[in-house]
Amino acid sequence: MLATVITMPTIFFGHGSPMNAIETNSFTQYWRNMKFEQKPKAILSISAHWETSGIRITSNKIQKTIHDFGGFPQALYDVQYTPQGSEWLCKRIQELIPKAQLDGSWGLDHGTWSVLAHLFPNADVPVVQLSLDTKLSDQQHYELAKSLGPLRNEGVLIIGSGNIVHNLREVDWSGKTKAYDWAKQFNEAIIKAVLAKDHKTLINYKSLEGSRLAAPTRDHYLPLLYIVAQEGEPSIFFESEYMMGSLNMASVIIK
After folding, report:
1. What pLDDT, in 10s, does the model give residues 122-138?
2. pTM for this predicted structure
3. CA pair distance 220, 190, nearest whole angstrom
4. What is the mean pLDDT of the chain?
5. CA gyration radius for the chain?
6. Residues in contact with 146: Cβ distance below 8 Å, sequence separation at least 6, in sequence order
């Protein structure tokens, strides 16, 4: 009897503050309670926090924990999330993306491990991280994401980690501002496009009102393209969760 092929979901996480790795709040509780029909064979993560010239994939046998931030409590630097890498997944990615090169200099940055520490707290699923190639256009990132689609039928959970709205320069550190008008305007337009599968708008997001302030750099937005490029029906969680005016935790799951 042939085994049933289960198509893994694919998820974009608004990862927010690195402190989510060690805090208990509505976001981390949701992540911990997420269930999967089948435990992933491996995880492929595209994080906002690894940009390279050229396409790179982490080739470590055991992934390193990258503490790519400063000024946080020691407890956050003490966190070690060190799952196995996956030689099989690295080779499979290179079959799908021949230009991808192995890279043992990186590991898992907080865009990846701050979420996975709750999703799979035992670090018992192999993880590989794919870099964001700074030389590619937004359209090319989308097309690259399309080529990864077959992995979902091979037991691989593809996750993207960033934030739809992410502007640290405009943060209201007093906490008095829930969301600036431009943040809400941009987020709502993106969510509408996600649910409508309007990929043209999602790729050309810079033409939307509020984009200059909501997504002043590409790094936190691009991981979303790697998820919406996949086949399936999208749904949203944390759609209206804003933080300090200029950050948004909206997340997308496609099944």
Report:
1. 999 999 999 999 999 99
2. 0.96
3. 14
4. 96
5. 17
6. 229, 230
Whose structure tokens read 């956050």? 76
pLDDT tens per residue, range 205-236 = 999 999 999 999 999 999 999 999 999 999 99
Burial of 8 (0-12, 13-18, 19+ CB in 10 A): buried
- Which amino acid is located at 253 in the chain? I
For tokens 């090169």, name the residue.
101
Q: State both tokens at 159.
A: 């996750």
Tell me which H or E stretch contains 162: strand 156-162
Q: How far apart are CA 44 and CA 226, in angstroms?
A: 11
Q: How far apart are CA 231 and CA 149, in angstroms?
A: 8
Phi-psi region of 113 (alpha: psi -120 to 50; beta: other; left: phi over 0): alpha
Q: What six digits make up the tokens of 48?
A: 């906002």
